[in-house]
Amino acid sequence: MIPHLKPSSGAHVGAKSSVSQIMWQVMLALTPATVFGIWCFGWPALNLFVITVVSAMGFEAFCIRLAGRAATPVIMDGSALLTGWLLAMTLPPWAPWWIGVVGSGLAIVLGKQVYGGLGQNLFNPAMLARVALLISFPIEMTTWANVSPLFFSDSPGLIESWRITFAGLENLDATTGATTLGYIKTEFSQNRL
Amino acid sequence: MYVLSAIVSLTLLGLFLGLLLGIAARYLKVESSPIVDELESLLPGSQCGQCGFPGCRPAAEALADGNAPATICPPGGSALAEQIAALLGLDLDLNDVKEPELLVARVSEDTCTGCTRCFKVCPTDAIVGAPKQIHAVVADACIGCKKCVDVCPTECLQMHPIEVTLRNWRWNKPSLPEASSGIC
Amino acid sequence: MLSFFTRQRIRGGVHAEERKAETASQPIVNNFPLPKKLYIPLQQHVGKPAEPLIRVGDRVLKGQLLAYSQGLISAPVHAPSSGIILDVNDYPAPHPSALPIRMIVLETDGKDEWIETCPVADPFLLTPEDISLRVGAAGIVGLGGAAFPTAVKLNMGRENHIDTLIINGAECEPYLSCDDRQMQERAEQIIDGVRLMLHGMTNSPEGGLAGQPGMNTCNAVVAIEDNKQQAYFAMRAAAELFPQIKVIQIPTRYPMGWDRQLIRYVTGKEVPVGCRSSEIGVTIHNVGTAYATHKAIRYGQPLVSRVITVSGGAVGRPMNVEVPLGTLISELFNFCEVNSEDTARIIMGGPMMGDSLPHSGLPTVKATSGILALTQSELKDTDEKPCIRCASCVTVCPAGLRPLDMANNIRVNQLDAAVDIGLKDCISCGCCSYICPSNIPLVQYFKYASGEVMARQQAAHKSEQTKRLIDDRNARLERIAQQQREEELARLAAKAERERLKAEQEAAV
Question: What gap in Å lies between CA C151 and CA C196, rounded to an integer?
Fold first, then answer.
């Protein structure tokens, strides 16, 4: 005889799926667009991407530690990485480093952890952070870079890119401007077209 | 001049409307709150006193005055609590409501003397019997008010929890994972 | 495969790992040693329990009626073997709670002696009503797991306009292969059973019901999932002579064997919420039921045994085995060499919809299609995580519900809100629990909530009843008081009268 087992209802077997697997699937889906985006906007885009993702994971680890739990298993589920990734993809590619860090902080702390962490958030944390950034830093958030693909002669090199990301766009040769749609909208609104 | 006329007209308007309201309050007054009657009709009406009030009417009055929680009536359980909360427009957090353990009276055949006192006090006629005959409780009709237990001279009436059978067995609510309850 | 695209789409569902191969590849084992004791529950079906008509100490023969059906929806119970009745009492039921239920305990004598049966040479001469009666008397219920009395379904078939009889050979639950094996080995008998069922649903001219509702087109469709090729070929070969019986293949996808899903796929008709399938002209029976019908009508043998799949990681010799009803699971496990130390969970039925059993000292019943002994590694993780609203459960729900919203409502005890978004249409098929990446026990939430909703309805009903009882009592007390008052008045009046007479007499004197 087998000892008493707790009554449990179906399904007794399960698909081999987990939360982190779903997160990785989303990331896989994001990869082509990300690679193309980084190629289009060069090294500064890569810098911002890495900064945003790493800081998102850092904020997540900080919050979890603050709650007195082990951070590693929570970080490993990939949700913070995905949030940072999504946020990075909505930022202007040549935005300064602190936009990424502040954005990640807003996303993880205000968008997710204050509600109780994974699954408890009311809104998508990355999108909440983007809205907050757009309201708080309109100039940085609407300064778009022109396409300057990696390894092209007039694109910024790796060293140059660090200056763009960490020191801002002031002493820079590259030109920036509104996107076509933004330009048309502005011109229309002033009856110049 | 403009300012003056505005002030005067608005003041007059205010006075007039206030007067109307005052008259209405005096002449259209509702004597007893109809909500009490409605509440009383919701309550079981067995005057069992398990709520701590002398009967269902006083309990309904306390509910209408806001002096009693919607979960006041143990025999009614959470189903009644929901109805009361809906009637009074209260927010009801059923998580705090402990479903009362339902009890029914049972007669112990050994000590019953057939004195008929119990079935005279039973509000729902749930006890059947005749003088000098052993009484029995109809479990389906018993509301667990314990009135019979109080009057039984031989303590042969006792409250027992309702027996779990295949008919009333239910699945448990899954417990929440520990991770979410561990924080805070 | 092309048919998959041209037919109506299947809603929801999952493709679970099948794990049928081990048991589906070997023939049904017929030499199960007769157990010493059989525990036969009086309720093995939907409806009222059967009423015993034997006494403790009686000797009974195999197939003898032990308990007769009571009420319209019920089924009788027969002796699965010959022997002595030891007891009629409460024993643990094959149910997750293992609460006691009334059972007949039969001590077998090893002779397995049949009672005299009355075989029918040409059952197609019988009237349809007679077929129903015989099926009902044989104690046949839906053997797919629903355990609804088959005779009632046949009667319903005669009372409604039915154009299609679907024979469910989907067997979509993982692990189970008892229907598969039966279709491979007993195809001709099953097809014969299908013909008898068709006959049983046709309105006979002698019954004076010609032209009345019932089966007039005489079409039967045997639907078999396309992972059971051999069963499909065997059934098609057996049905070749009978143009009214069509054998088709359906895609392998759980829960294809759910009646509504199957009806939608086969006929393209949707059974409306709250309606029976017979209302849209379809009746559905399991292949095992068709076989039992064949046995009952042709040979007069009642339902006393069935084929059960014993499988799972902890089973040493997984197999399909024909056992007498009432055999204890522990005896089955001994025969199949189940390693009790590896057994993490015993399941009655399939792993998707079946319920866990607390121990193996419980009997098998008519609805037992399989007994699984699963190891820990086969079970779904119980490590529950928060819902991330991935909506996988919405995608797979065959009933088109939103399991995550329902579970959230139930978690905060808003049962009415859960009912509003379709709790009552949940069939607890287990697809949502199966797919959930956060391992949330969704089905258990729904089962809990359904039970709770029912309990509340009963409570509301009881409080109404209570109110009526109290009103009646108050009225009675009032009446008695009124009577007493009247008597009192009458007494006073009589006394006054007496005194007046006395005074008059005195005055006269």
Answer: 12
